[in-house]
Each structure stands twice: as structure tokens, then as C-alpha cells.
Amino acid sequence: MVTIYDIANKANVSAMTVSRVINNTGRVSDKTRAKVKKVMQELNYVPNQMARSLVLQQSKTLFLLITDITNPFYTTLSRGAEDAARKHGYNLLFGNSDENLSKESEYINTILSTRVDGVLLAPAGDPSAAHLERLLERNVPFVLIDREVPGIQSDIVQGDSKEASKKLMEHLLSYGHRNIALVNGSSSISSARDRLQGYNEMLKLHDLSANERYIFETSFGPFKDQSGLMAWLDQLHPFPTAFLAGNNVLAMELLHALRSRGLQVPEDVSVVCFDDFGMYSDLDPFITVAAQQAYQFGYLGMQLLIERITDREEAGPQKKIILPAEIIVRRSVKKLA
Amino acid sequence: MVTIYDIANKANVSAMTVSRVINNTGRVSDKTRAKVKKVMQELNYVPNQMARSLVLQQSKTLFLLITDITNPFYTTLSRGAEDAARKHGYNLLFGNSDENLSKESEYINTILSTRVDGVLLAPAGDPSAAHLERLLERNVPFVLIDREVPGIQSDIVQGDSKEASKKLMEHLLSYGHRNIALVNGSSSISSARDRLQGYNEMLKLHDLSANERYIFETSFGPFKDQSGLMAWLDQLHPFPTAFLAGNNVLAMELLHALRSRGLQVPEDVSVVCFDDFGMYSDLDPFITVAAQQAYQFGYLGMQLLIERITDREEAGPQKKIILPAEIIVRRSVKKLA
DNA sequence: TTGTAAGCGTTATCAT
DNA sequence: ATGATAACGCTTACAA
């Protein structure tokens, strides 16, 4: 591997001069600069980022930890985060926790030992607090996306889940639905709780009794065949006329389960959900959704993170960005007589 | 930041002893070991991976460069790669080139300066050869996925694109279609060429003349509204009864364009494509596809890479894994009278 | 304008 | 079983 010293030798200068040329710092005569650059070219020199990070005490690398790489909400979010990071000259490491706390914990190890400058992450749930504490101890700046964690102070970019949930419910209710079931993510996740709350509040507002049986709680992802979901559907009576799914993955699992029971959407049963389907939004059936601004979650989150890192000293107050969702009415909801 | 010396001081041993404890190398008395471990706990010590990499001359980090993070083929592939990497104790860095050669080039810079131990990548196209040469110069092991690059020798995991293309065509032909158009990725990409070849060979086999006009070449992704595609469709006559799309993104773009022309699939026009839709496969319309083993592309590719790195000395012959695709017949193809 | 020396946090080598 | 020293490739501080 060619080092700064190889360049220095061949160019008959000191390593320091080479360093200066590389970083455009200090004064170097044009002649020397040209000579050094030429040698770097010849030897195909590429600086060793690790050596540099070691002395600089910063890696110019950020980490993005998402919970489901197969979910278009997160991949679109990733694009946003990537764009923002690169725009500011940071490299980006990705990790994928699969909504799994122990995988998340492993990634926290990686993050800590890898000495990244900061982390943008969607926590797997409330117990992630322990992982975040480890970041805090080490003074690793982080920004939360999509989910808050009780007991943890930090910048965060969130969706307005409760409000969106209410709108989705409003839509169903206005179409005459009264028996509405909820397929939701784990209640140890703040966004799931907010969605549940919106659901309950709208039921109450319409003087409908909340039926515990109508609520099914499972993982937000990744997608799998849900035998649990099937079993739950089997024991439902009266069978709901409509379902609200806590995210797009759950909507897919639900659709899958409904189909295997021979039920058509929207003819036999109506479905709405959180999150749009990325490029698949053009596929039938057009599900009515609360579309979140996935790209912005990533882009803005990354911006908050970079600000935090840049203005490290002036701690400043915690920032919270709440992104509204847009209800896109398509045709997965049937109007009841 | 607490270092190995902090531990050493507090435990009244040398840094070397701490290092031995951390890495379980050499001989350390149980008593000393226990003492050191206790101090590490107390001080919440996490080794500095960069310092370690610097001396070890290896980072235990691999890089995965894909071309479209919004494409489920690549995200599923990523899961496979991630699983394989972690299984062998490697960390994984992701990058996303967006099918864009200059973004790819930037990532090659990152890869080089970051001193990763190896790279698994889907090249953006034949011109990627220049980038791969840079890896070769530096002796950075790499494995190609999905696409080969003329002039570059390397291990590779590929799909059997030509064969799958023929099967897809066979399906269309057997349903009576004769006017079949192809929406394909750039011909500077080997897989696109293979798919075109399969298309042409089947036409020839059935004594159908290849109509240049029936072939539209564009980017494999990421998804966008395709005004070019629209324009192309507009000047097509006779209008094809069926379309073969070179991947799932193109299929979506095509569907989008067809829909805006008021055409239904399969009633008005038939569509088949490469790559399944991940969890969206359950959405209507069920497109008939050549499903590739995305997960295996990543998993096996990563295995090849790790083998290469491990047996670095015994160069061994280039390995080539060809994964067949499975035709999944759904209902996007109409039987013609 | 250029160079020398020390140090970033770790491990390999050689002593003891 | 444990420790001292040098080295990995680079940059900062200081000197010339």
C-alpha cells in the first residue's frame, strides 16, 4: 500500500508537505505542489482514511440504522438520508435491525467501535432506551426517526401518527364503517401507540365501543406469512367490514391473509393503511393510505444530525420535526349502504 | 474517550495485557483477566476499531454497492449479503449508485480510502470497468453481482438472463402473442444484453421478424415517470399485444404509462417482466414474472467474497455462479384467440 | 516554504 | 504470565 511517505520520498519532500498538498492546508509553493501531485498520480495514492480518523478523532462517517430494508418507507427514507449526508461530505454506513432488539444491540456495538461521528436511527422500540444510553455515555450524537423513546432526550423527526390515524378512521367512518379492526405494530413502539390512540379516539368520538378483540398486535416487519394473523381473523365475529393497518407491511400481510380466506378488497372488506407503497402504488388494488413523507424523514433527520455534530458545543434545545401525512383516497374502501 | 491505557492504569497492568484479554490471545492469568474485565466494564470500554484496523491492516468491514435501493431485488439481495457478512463476523457498509456511473465512482473513492477488506457490487454498466481497474490496482478483492463487465476477470453471481428471457417469451408466444415489445435497461449492461438476446432468439425461432421499433431502451431504475416511454408508446403501430419488461422497475413504469393511456392489463395488453415484487407480489395485478433468487445473489456473492479474502494467497480460478430464474405464471397475460 | 517530532489507539515482537 | 517498544499512516505543533 502506498503511503504518504512513499510520495514524500519520490517527490523529495517531507511527509508533511505531502499532507499539506492533500489537505490544501498551510503554504506550499506551486512548484512543490505540482511535483507532489504528479507523484501521487503516478503512484495512484489514496489517503488512508483510518489513519486520518485516528488522529483527527472524527471519521466523517455517519451511520443510518433502519428497522426494515425491505420496506419502501425505509428505503425511500434512506435515499433522503444518503443525499443529505453526501451533500455535506459525509460517508454513510447503513444497518438494518429487522425490528429486532438484539440485532440493534449488535449494530450499536459496531457503531461504538467504529467511531462514527453520529447516528440516525429508527429505534426498534422502547427497550432501545438501553442502547441509546450507551450512545449517550459515549457522547455519540444521534437523531431519532419515526419513533420516540420514553426517557430519551434527542432531536427527532416524527410523523403525526395520531392525527393521520384519525383521518384514516374518519374516512372509514364516513363511508359507513362501524366494525373496524386494527392490525398494528408492537405497542412498545411509540408510533404504534399513537396510531392506536387515534383509532380509539375516533371510536369514542363516534360513540362506538372499543372491542379489544378487534385489535391485533404484531411486528411492523419484515413481511412474513402471518399464521397468527390468520388465527386472529378466524375468531373474529362479527367480522369487521374494514381494517386499518399500522403500516404498509402489515397491510400486505393482511391482504395476503384476507385473500387466502377468499375475501376481496374492497368488495368484501375494506382496507386502509399507513405509508404509501413507493413505486408499487400503481399496482392494484389501490389501497387508500396515509402517505408519509419518507424521503423527508431521512433528509431532515440527517440535517438535524449534521447540525448537532457541527454545533456540538452550543448544545441548544432538542429539536422535534413533525411531518404530517397525506391521506390518499384510492379505492380500497367500499361505501356501505 | 477511554483507551486501553486507561484500563491498564486502573487495573495495574500493561496495555498489552489488556489487549490480550480483549482478543483472547496469549496467556493471561485468570485473576488478571478477571480484574481487567471488571475495569473494562466499569469504564465502559469499547475498542477503537480504527486503531485496530490500522495496525492489523484489515478492517473486518466489507462494502456492498447496489444500483437501486428502492428496487426489492436489490434490497432482498442486500438482506442476503448482510446475513452472510455478519455470519462471518464482518461489518457491512452499503452504498447505492442509482445506476449512475459518477456516483459509483465516488463510492469507489470511499471504498479505497476506507480500506475495506472487500467489495460486493453490482456494476452500473460496462464503463464500470474503469472503476474496477482501480480496485484491481489496489488489490481490493471484489465480487460482481448480477452483471459482468467485459475485460474484467472476477468471481461473479449472475442470473441466467438469456434463458429466463426465452422462457418469458415462450410463455407469451404460447398464449398467441406475436407483436411483442421489449422495454429494457441500457445495453451497456450485460444482463440487459442477455435479455435482449433471449428476446431476439425466440422471435427468430418462431420466424418472427425483429422490429427495431419494438425495443425501448432506458435505465433499469430508479423508478420515475417516463415521458420517453410515453412518447415511444405513442408512435407504436401496430400496437403490441404484449410487453416484456427487463426488470420490475421498468414493469412499473410501463404499467404507469399504459394506465395513463387507459389500457388495462391483461384485458387490453399483456405484460411480463424480470424479477418478482417482494412483498408486493400479492398486490393486483398479478404480473407474470421471471423471479430471480435475489436473496441468494447477495448471500452467495458475499460467500464468494469472503472466501476470496480468506484464501487470498491461493488465488484459485475465477468462480461463476449462475442462478436460474423461475417463471411464475400469474394473470397479466391474456390468451389470444 | 518546508521539515522534525510526537502522538492518535491498537497489536506484534521480543524480553523478562 | 506480563511488559517495553516499535509500528500502522496520518496530522498538529513547533522549529528552521
Automatic annotation (TrEMBL), chains A, B:
User: CDD domains, from UniProt?
Assistant: HTH_LacI (cd01392)
InterPro entries referenced in this protein's UniProt entry, alphabetically? HTH_LacI (IPR000843), LacI/GalR-like_sensor (IPR046335), Lambda_DNA-bd_dom_sf (IPR010982), Peripla_BP_I (IPR028082)
What is the name listed in the Swiss-Prot or TrEMBL entry for this protein? LacI family transcriptional regulator
Keyword Nuclease (UniProt): no
- Recite the UniProt keywords alphabetically: DNA-binding, Repressor, Transcription, Transcription regulation
Which organism is this entry from?
A: Paenibacillus nanensis
The organism sits in which domain of life? Answer: Bacteria
Output one GO MF annotation: transcription cis-regulatory region binding
A Pfam family this protein belongs to? Peripla_BP_3
